[in-house]
């Protein structure tokens, strides 16, 4: 399965935020990587700003270029505001739902749980991270995987009420996608309209 495997701290420094989760390097070096990262830089062009926003979204959700473009095209064909629909599609990926439910500490860890067949959808094992979860579907942890340390530690003290579009039953280790999230409920710092403008030029 294709995914970004390069240095994560470098990407986090590029955007000035912990895209992949808590990052000690970012707190020490809160400026862009490279020889001139700590010096003044020339003004970024409009295209550069739009491209940067697309890259931010790709790295945040762990999606590579081809898959991201296909997701955008799907959003463009859907009813509603394209940018908002794009984020809703990214949010409804199985790996992201597993992360939002608190079953994994990061999206990368959630992706690994999915590919290693620890996660079920409506009671059946699904090992495709990009699987689109639909409203009403149940996402759970396989019975034999409930004692995994990474899952137990991630769920310990996790606040499930912060995502109103999701429901979690701690007794059965099963969550439910109640509905697609509204844009205001998605906490990611992404300016989706810039991504729409970028693709509209291509």
Detailed description of the structure:
With 202 residues, the chain is of the alpha+beta class. It has 2 domains: 8-89 and 190-200, Ribosomal Protein S4 Delta 41, Chain A, domain 1, CATH 1.10.1050; 93-179, Roll (Structural Genomics Hypothetical 15.5 Kd Protein In mrcA-pckA Intergenic Region, Chain A). Helices cover 42% and strands 8% of the residues. The protein contains 9 helices and 5 strands; from the N terminus they run H-H-H-H-H-H-H-E-E-E-H-E-E-H. It has helices at 8-15, 24-28, 46-61, 65-77, 82-91, 94-100, 107-115, 149-155, 192-200; strands at residues 119-121, 124-125, 138-141, 166-169, 174-177. Strands 2-1-3-5-4 form a 5-stranded antiparallel β-sheet. Helix 4 (65-77) packs across helix 5 (82-91) and helix 5 packs across helix 9 (192-200). The longest helix is centred in the N-terminal third of the chain and has 16 residues, at 46-61. The radius of gyration is 18 Å and the shape is globular.
Most strands sheet: 5 strands, antiparallel
Low-confidence stretches: none
Order of helices and strands: HHHHHHHEEEHEEH
Query: In the CATH scheme, what's the topology name of the largest domain?
Result: Ribosomal Protein S4 Delta 41, Chain A, domain 1
| Count of runs of 4 or more consecutive helical residues | 9
Q: Could you give the distance between the termini?
A: 27 Å
Q: Which second-level CATH architecture of the largest domain applies?
A: Orthogonal Bundle
Helix content: 40-55%
